[in-house]
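[Archive record]
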Amino acid sequence: MNRKNAWASYTREQTKAVYDFSEDYKKFLDNAKTEREAVDALVNMAEDEGFRELSRLIESGEQLKAGDKVYTVWMNKSIVLFKIGKEPMENGLNILGAHIDSPRLDVKQNPLYEDSGLAYLDTHYYGGIKKYLYVALPLAIHGVIVRKDGTTTILNVGEDEDDPVFFISDLLIHLSQELMTKKASEVVAGEALDLVIGHKPFILEGDDKESKKDEEADETLTRGQEYAVRAEKEEGAEAKKIKGAVRRGILAILKDEYEVEEDDFISAELEIVPAGKARDAGLDRSMILGYGQDDRVCAYPSMRAICEVGDVERTSCCILVDKEEIGSVGATGMRSHFFENAVAEVMNLTGDYSELKVRRCLANSCMLSSDVSAGFDPNYASAFEKKNTAYLGCGLVFNKFTGSRGKSGSNDANAEYVAEIRRALDEAGVVYQTAELGRVDLGGGGTIAYILALYGMNVIDSGVAVLNMHAPWEATSKADIYEALKGYIAFLEKVRAV
């Protein structure tokens, strides 16, 4: 296969379009570091483009017609969008699919503790990571805390310039002789990924400190100080001077600034992610370095494609889901029935619903299951097979199959469907390439493709090449992201049932 470098094909105007689109994408990365934040951003985009919420249409009983745009959100972590086409939905959909969760650290439900004058949050890593990459790195806390009364506090600490950041400590090189003899997988244990969040003890100012610890007798105490005093009393007299004082200081801050008590961690979803914004990379600014590009580098162009595509023959659909990094499980993962349910509801609003027609719709559909592909890295050339790998700058990537070793766990696209994809993209002038995920027998990976293929539809893996995949900071080519947008639009407009 003769690979084409996308940059070499651009006019000056096209190059400007590439850079302009990349600026929009970087803003999305900055505002969507968790799946909840991603859904919020996507809903805002959808409503700006005239998409209407499915539940409201169901309540009103309004019938959908060609050209109508509708979306539905599931548990604030997954979203499905439809643009109704001219053909009956029974003939099938053209589906763009990607995921919006990324590897990270999750805060445990009983996380706060103090040790040797430092306060920590205990964490559990999510998805496949190299644990040693998360030490000595500025980190931020994103997420929600839901109280028993149903009220919610949204946390986003560590991103603004004036925000504090957090970190996981590393052992100094001078004392690492024994540590350096361990395998990379053992250098940092999962239970050692605890977040340092403070070290200042809780102290009440004034000469008579003991009397000021009586919250009923001193009206000058803040709500957080009152809470910390109460916690101190519960720990007993032994703790009054030193033991637990840093932890109590953190509890006071949580109470004062966020109206959060320690027990509220039980019903919280807090994610620890790298702090900082996505940045241009390279002197030529040809790349983007940012957190969470697996798989938001595919999710964002997919969303933009369904927003920008014109009137379509076949109904267009975009699925952006949670939990792919841990097997697509749970109510918000692709294995859930929320997508199938959404299709049934939309077909009902078109006045053309039956269980049989829903099954036909799904079986007759065509899908691009978009996830990132491993970009060739000359520093680790032995991990790749050069003829069948993805290269930065060579456009949208197609993986006919994924899986590991003997294609285990793979979706393997039919040749007829691959030919139809080639036809549509060549007509639209999209730069694309084909690849496998690394050398045979070395490793491998999976996506949501096989789950949708269970309906009998045609599915192929596609996406964007990435360097540093699953690292805190991942790198992509701006040209590849732009070609993904072009390819997704061409898919929605041109691909026919095979």
Q: What stands out?
A: The radius of gyration is 25 Å. Residues 6-102+291-494 form a domain with the Aminopeptidase fold (CATH 3.40.630.10).
